[in-house]
Specification:
This protein has a single domain, classed as Up-down Bundle (Four Helix Bundle (Hemerythrin (Met), subunit A)), CATH 1.20.120. Helix content is 57%, strand content 5%. The chain has 5 helices and 2 strands. The protein has a two-stranded antiparallel ribbon with strand order 1-2. α3 (38-57) runs antiparallel to α5. The longest helix has 25 residues, at 113-137. It is globular, with a radius of gyration of 16 Å.
Length: 152
Amino acid sequence: MRDLFTYNWQVRDEWFNWCAEQPLEELTRQRDGGVGSILQTLLHIIDVEVSWIRAVMGKPDVPINSSEYYTLKEIRTLSQQLRPEIISYFDDDFFMEEKKKVYASWLDESFDKKDVIAHAIVHEVHHIGQLSVWARQLNQLPVSANYIGRNL
């Protein structure tokens, strides 16, 4: 599963690069589906990933205030800043104890660790699909979501 996190980060970084080539008004325009805009969707992906992984770590959730992140640069920087905390926790034990209960404070509920990790991965894949639809609506080629060939 570690490779799937790496995959998500590679694809996310490629989306950041794609966004850098787009007009700001297209990145911030409210769209049907997804979380609203392209930038809001990228921020949401980051927020959900870090919230769930912090829950797995037994740490409190630190919600990301979307009103503090307006630009592509700010969102990209946030993604890069939060990644090391997640990577540092990827030791051999991270993917063990699959039945260990993980408490999600924002849901006041517990889930199996295995399910939380899988959810954190597929949540991003889901939203990357939405970004791809929006890219095509802009007559742009989306970032490739292909796992094969990424040498993970």
